[in-house]
Amino acid sequence: MSPGSGHWKLSGQGLELAARTPSTIWLRRAAPPVLPDFLDSADLKFASRECVSFLNCLLAEIGQTSFWINSAQGATRANLKTRQLRAAVQAGLAIPPTLCSNDPAAIRSFAEAHQGNIIYKTFYPASWNTGDGIAVLFSSQVHEDDLLDDATLQAVPGIFQANIPKLHELRITVMGRQVFATKLDSQAVPSAQMDWRAASGAIPLSPVGLPPAIRQACLKIMDDLGIVFGCFDMIVTPGGDYVFLEVNEMGAFLWMERQNPEIKLLDPFCEFVIQ
Q1: pLDDT band of 270, cuts 50, 70, 90
Q2: Residue 196 binned pLDDT confidence (cut-offs 50, 70, 90)
């Protein structure tokens, strides 16, 4: 790169792109760098950081005038759980009573205030390679007796929320200004009642309409976070109230259409990308 000019080239397996700005970039779940075995273990952190920084520079050069799904800045904002919750409240949605903390006294007080019926969630998706497979940490019900010692609670901050009764759940997929809602009958599957992602069997799914106020609230949250695509998770209570849980700026959505072809999402997404 010289003053007043620049040239980039991106090549790899099945990919060859040079000096042509894409009209649209779908930035979905960038994987961490895969580093060669010959690097010394002391150098892995340095090499990984350099790879990530270089990729960010390259993407910024490639997509200066592109339409991003979603932009790196929007994705960063949208992945801040507290920012999501604040955006939901400002949009007029209900959220569960929530504590984000590593203060043992505050956590125990919160659990006591809700009769020990609380949910623990992570700020970032968590999984472990156990040797026998991958262990994934889903949202978990926690009682007061389940809380660990103060030192452990202080070492790992968490999201603690009151456990909200569910009639069913919603997966709301937003593409630009189009909003598609799917009813998840999670309470019909015992393993899905606390977190539908942990289901050991298929959850009954069906397309469903949304009240206009809920639809508008979702769009307002999207604008607040600066994203154009997102998958919302909400609870519908036995009393008919809608409760916001979170929005995943790069959530999976095609699995719903694969399970129930009445849920049309692939064609609208392709049209969204093209337009």
Answers
A1: very high
A2: confident
Tokens of 67: 């339409």
CA 103 to centroid of chain Cα atoms: 25
Segment 114-139, tens digit of pLDDT: 988 899 998 887 666 777 766 666 77
pTM: 0.86
How sure is the predictor about 253, in pLDDT bands with cuts at 50, 70 and 90?
very high
Phi-psi domain of 202 (left: phi exceeds 0; alpha: psi -120 through 50; beta: other): beta
Three-state DSSP string of the chain: CCCCCCCCEEEECCEEEECCCCCEEECCCCCCCCCCCCCCHHHHHHHHHHHHHHHHHHHHHHCCCCEEECCHHHHHHHCCHHHHHHHHHHCCCECCCEEEECCHHHHHHHHHHCCCCEEEECCCCEEEECCCCEEEECCEEECHHHCCCHHHHHHCCEEEEECCCCCEEEEEEEECCEEEEEEECHHHCHHHCCCHHHCCCCCCEEEECCCHHHHHHHHHHHHHHCCCEEEEEEEECCCCCEEEEEEECCCCCHHHHHHCCCCCCHHHHHHHHHC
Q: Does 4 have pLDDT greater than 60?
A: no
Angle among Cα 216, 228, 179 to the nearest 5 degrees reads 40
Find all residues with CB under 8 Å of 44, minimum gap 6, and list them.
35
